[in-house]
Amino acid sequence: MLKLAGELIEGQLADHMADLDAHTRNVGEVLKTGVYIDPNIGVHAAVAVLANKLYAIPFWVPRAMTIDYIAIDVSALSGGHSCYLGIYNDGTNLYPGTLLIDAGEVSVNTNGLKAAACAKSLTKGLYWLAVASEGTPTVSYLSTRYPILGRLSTNLAVSYNGWKVAHVYAALPDPFTAGGSLVSDAPLVCPKLVSLD
Amino acid sequence: MPETRYVEEYKDGKLVNQEPYEVSDEQLDREEAEQVIHELSAKADNEMTTLEMAKFLKALAKLR
Questions:
Q1: pLDDT tens-digit series, residues A30-88
Q2: What is the CATH number of the domain that holds A147?
């Protein structure tokens, strides 16, 4: 850092510290804008979600960013039904907490990508992407994810990828309903990245 | 034959935009195989017919 005449070292230091790539390049912070993102490396598959359930999958935000949509991909429709999509803040011990965004309903009456508008700036941290299902559409999921939620305690063969809790179909509850169970087949919900901030 | 699907964008629960895209035969085959596996996995072993077992194995092979 070269100090120019009239510049304060504190100002230079603040600029330097704000540059995330100044000393290290965290691969988790390297994200393409304008596309749907997911921090996990996993095997893509499809799963039929259950009716009247609320699911949440972890979404870690490695640097400040702005998103504009969240989406699910339907490969087998559920006639006349919809899903609510949204985002929760992190709560206690990796359980979803207060509701950050209810992005509203998307129809799952046809196959294809279903995206709900939810323009939002997010700061670094852990969030939970949520889907509440009215019917039983088959949607994309990752059969393996980075297992921050641990493994089945009896044989370690199953890694958990989210939470599931009973929820009579309606708008997303605030906070996330207590008493959920860990699951290994929570659906894939992806936000669309607008900008790294 | 490839299938046309739509990226549907919703705002406050209302459909505001639709963009068509094509899903390849290969992808449709995979989706069908996943569906077969999902449905037949839910059956009890003693309820599976030989035909269903064959279907199940073929679906598994497709996803290999």
A1: 899 999 998 777 777 888 899 999 999 999 999 999 999 999 999 989 999 999 999 99
A2: 2.60.120
> In angstroms, rounded to a whole number, what is the distance separating the alpha carbons of residues A139 and B58?
22
Interface of A with B (CB under 8 A): 45-48, 69, 75-76, 82, 103-107, 110-117, 138
Tokens of A115: 């995206």
User: In this complex, do B34 and A45 lie within 8 Å of one another by their Cβ atoms?
Assistant: yes
Domain assignment present for residue A19? The answer is no
Report pTM: 0.83
Taking CB atoms and an 8 Å cut-off, how many pairs form between chains A and B? 60
Residue B36 corresponds to which tokens in the numbers above?
Answer: 């077969």
Instruction: Please tell me the distance from the alpha carbon of residue A8 to that of residue A43, in angstroms, as a whole number.
Output: 50
Contacts of A103 in chain B (CB under 8 A): 10
Total tally of structural domains belonging to chain A: 1
The domain locations on chain B are: 25-64
**Domain assignment of residue A86, given as a range:** 31-196
The model's pLDDT over A153-167, given as tens digits with 9 standing for 90+, comes to 888 888 899 999 999
